[in-house]
């Protein structure tokens, strides 16, 4: 267990969890190797693109409504700023809260700063953010550049915290430190637990922390049925709210890849129990999730009633969807635990999972509890997935795999991937809202959406007929994993 909130640095996923991003085989094979602690990474000799930890840390912090964030980096690391602002404003409209821009600055490190250091620039940017935004806290995200030149970001933020009288927090998310971009989530949460969260004053028996991205509100209704209420964190929360997350009765997460660190840290530091179950996708996953939540909050009997009622409510429509979707081949390209959850959901619709390319793999989570292992849940309850790879959005692999498997449907989680399915004439479903598939209703949501998407077949085939892939026959005629090296047992 490597959660040490006294250290300003977060331990990266590779060393903390044994995470990796190169594997090809079957889902069961990966599960078995993970259980036996056999690190099974295959390193790529060629890589097209990646996200980075810094970007993921920013994605969690910039939408805290009354904080400011400073990216201590060259301007090139700010490519996501416009997207963050768009998401922030769009979600503010949806949530009916005042619409404003993100409080986000870059120190714009330049060549001279690389030689003489960027400390003075960071200090003046922190003071600038304090005056311009009157924030309740300031987060400073590090970058490759600030890490390489050795700026003492932690020392500077500590000094400015004393001067300004608000938390000024170093976020250790230098991009080069980890190949697993989800480490950036851990960096952001480490900063929050280390400097923002306070010990509980009064425990709230009905309040459940929900670690999520910025999806739709489905938990108010779902938890309401069992007398509980959600406390959505971290995007769209406020600093005062984050200070008190130690007072919740339990913590759940929509995706263990996202929330593993924060949920475990809250349990370790403040005794807030984490719901240790697969995420609530698909029939069995949702049953297990609700039962564990019920056990931790003393609502077992109420949960059983809700499970029975909800299963009965969706039974007829689910049957109709299964009749229509049974045996249709689907390929999934998504982040780790969320991608695994989608496999369960699609199997509940009786679709045939032709394969999956999952962005990275965590052999375990910070709680060390197998019940949270969404992939094991899929393999144990729905069987193996034969064409299973761990692929950090390497489009050249995806296009090659899809052209061989020719699924009826491609399901992707990240926008940039959707175009490739369409270019190949494969109806493609992009679901940005991870809450769309949660719970019993989520299965119906997906089923109905998939039926709509399958209707686009002729349309996407038309697009494919007029599209030219950038890959030559040299690449398309060889195996998709030609650049994946041999397995590295470490
Ligand atoms: S922090 Fe590093 S990896 Fe991330 S965008 Fe900047 S230079 Fe690239």
UniProtKB/TrEMBL annotation:
EC number: 1.18.6.1
Enzyme class: oxidoreductase
Pfam families, alphabetized: Oxidored_nitro
Segments forming a coiled coil: 304-331
Top-rank lineage group of the source organism: Bacteria
GO molecular function annotation: nitrogenase activity
Keyword Membrane assigned: no
Annotated InterPro entries: Nase/OxRdtase_comp1, NifE-like
Alphabetical keyword list: Coiled coil, Oxidoreductase
Nitrogenase/oxidoreductase component domain: residues covered: 56-454
PANTHER family: NITROGENASE IRON-MOLYBDENUM COFACTOR BIOSYNTHESIS PROTEIN NIFE
The protein's name: Nitrogenase molybdenum-iron protein alpha chain
Source organism: Clostridium magnum DSM 2767
């Amino acid at each position: 267990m490597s959660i040490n909130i006294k250290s300003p640095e977060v331990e990266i996923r590779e060393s903390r969890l044994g995470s990796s991003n190169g594997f090809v085989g079957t889902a069961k094979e990966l599960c078995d190797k993970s259980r036996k602690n056999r690190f099974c990474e295959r390193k790529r000799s060629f890589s097209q693109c990646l996200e980075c930890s810094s970007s993921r840390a920013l994605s969690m912090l910039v939408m805290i409504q009354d904080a400011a964030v400073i990216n201590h980096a060259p301007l090139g690391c700010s490519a996501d700023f416009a997207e963050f602002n768009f998401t922030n404003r769009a979600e503010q409209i949806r949530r009916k809260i005042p619409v404003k821009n993100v409080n986000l600055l870059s120190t714009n490190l330049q060549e001279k700063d690389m030689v003489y250091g960027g400390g003075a620039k960071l200090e003046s940017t922190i003071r600038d953010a304090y005056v311009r935004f009157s924030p309740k806290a300031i987060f400073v995200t590090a970058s490759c550049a600030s890490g390489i030149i050795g700026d003492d970001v932690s020392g500077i933020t500590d000094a400015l915290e004393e001067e300004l009288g608000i938390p000024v927090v170093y976020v250790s998310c230098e991009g080069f430190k980890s190949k697993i971009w989800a480490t950036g989530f851990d960096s952001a949460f480490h900063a929050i637990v280390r400097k923002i969260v306070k010990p509980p004053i009064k425990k709230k028996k009905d309040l459940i922390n929900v670690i999520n991205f910025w999806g739709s509100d489905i938990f108010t209704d779902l938890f309401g049925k069992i007398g509980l209420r959600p406390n959505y964190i971290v995007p769209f929360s406020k600093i005062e709210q984050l200070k008190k997350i130690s007072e919740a009765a339990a913590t759940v997460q929509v995706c263990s890849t996202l929330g593993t660190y924060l949920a475990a840290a809250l349990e370790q530091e403040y005794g807030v129990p984490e719901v240790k179950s697969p995420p609530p996708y698909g029939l069995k996953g949702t049953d297990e999730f609700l039962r564990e939540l019920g056990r931790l909050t003393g609502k077992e009997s109420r949960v059983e009633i809700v499970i029975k009622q909800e299963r009965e409510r969706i039974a007829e429509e689910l049957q109709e969807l299964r009749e229509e979707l049974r045996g249709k081949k689907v390929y999934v390209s998504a982040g780790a635990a969320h991608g695994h959850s989608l496999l369960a959901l699609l199997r509940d619709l009786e679709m045939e999972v032709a394969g999956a390319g999952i962005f990275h793999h965590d052999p375990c989570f910070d709680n060390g509890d197998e019940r949270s292992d969404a992939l094991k849940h899929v393999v144990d309850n729905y069987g193996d997935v034969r064409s299973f790879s761990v692929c950090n959005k390497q489009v050249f692999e995806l296009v090659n795999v899809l052209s061989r498997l020719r699924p009826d449907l491609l399901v992707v989680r990240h926008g940039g991937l959707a175009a490739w399915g369409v270019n190949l004439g494969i109806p493609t479903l992009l679901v940005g809202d991870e809450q769309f598939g949660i719970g019993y209703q989520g299965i119906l949501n997906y089923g109905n959406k998939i039926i709509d998407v399958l209707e686009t077949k002729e349309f996407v085939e038309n697009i494919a007929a007029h599209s030219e892939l950038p890959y030559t026959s040299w690449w398309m005629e060889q195996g998709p994993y030609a650049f994946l090296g041999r397995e590295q047992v470490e």
